[in-house]
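Quick start: load a record and inspect it. Here is Ubiquitin thioesterase OTU:
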Amino acid sequence: MLRLRVKTRDGKQYPLTECLCGDSTLKDLLLAVQVITLILPVRQKILTGYPPKVIRGSPESTLSSLGIQGGELLIVEEADPSTNVTCMVQESLPPSSHMKNANISNLNVNRDAALPLKAKPENANADAGLPFKCPTGMLLKKVVPSDNSCLFARVYYLINGGESIDSNRLQEMRELVANVIRSKPDLYNEAVLERSNSNYCEWILKDTSWGGAIELSIFSQYYEIEIVALDLKTGILNRFGEDKKYDHRMIVLYDGVHYDPVYMETFEGNNIYIFPTTDDSVLHQAKEVAMEAKHSGQYTDTNTFRLECKECGITITGEDEALAHAKKTGHSKFEEIHRN
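Running the structure step on this input writes:
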């Protein structure tokens, strides 16, 4: 195994151990670095050696062929792919979504601080660090199509600064959840999951299965970030990871069946997707957004809404009936019936 250190733009260093070896690929390395920095692989500029030089190669180049050895310090920066200074010669990842020699869910990354902000506010002092307040702006809900993977897509969208993702990335997030649940059968037992541990792991891997509080809790721990899910109907803030005292938070709105991401459009024209937990003014603004959505009827009463099972055609009323039907038949494709 290669023992490497990652140095970020703010000067902090993070050990990267027990996940990469000489036969690991450049793609493996970039995905491992993404876990620490939140910088997408295609935007990573990594320098090593003295004087520092950019590591460049194809996604399948091995680390040994690129001259990367154990004990090296990797200086990571974010760069525009069009500038031709990023690590990958190709501008996009290959179709395969799985790493060759590393499992992202098993990375042993020791971090003494939470993940850095994807887009740091322009008016923040670069040397001051946290705490700081967000710049002035308007909190907005991004309306996105409703599907069974909306929770996974919205978390990824916010973590990666508004980047859209493909189905391969969504499936990797489902695999992460399944791996965590499978590894902790005592914590994630039948009483918690309302089905056996193995059955739940099999179920959540399907792209027709929806995520909820369990998945938000796992993502909060994995990304080391507080996730606030604001219920539009009740106005309740469900804060996952609040007790961990993470430095950063993201916010999603929950309308009863669907999750929408919340971001800030600053008056300077920038978008902010991740917020410091030291500034609770964002939560007050989020409640105002939720109240406006509630008054305009933008939520679903899960006790009375009507669903159609797209696999057998039966009409179901309420979430409890839908869950019972899914458990009895194994069906998982539902569509809400909207009243005209």
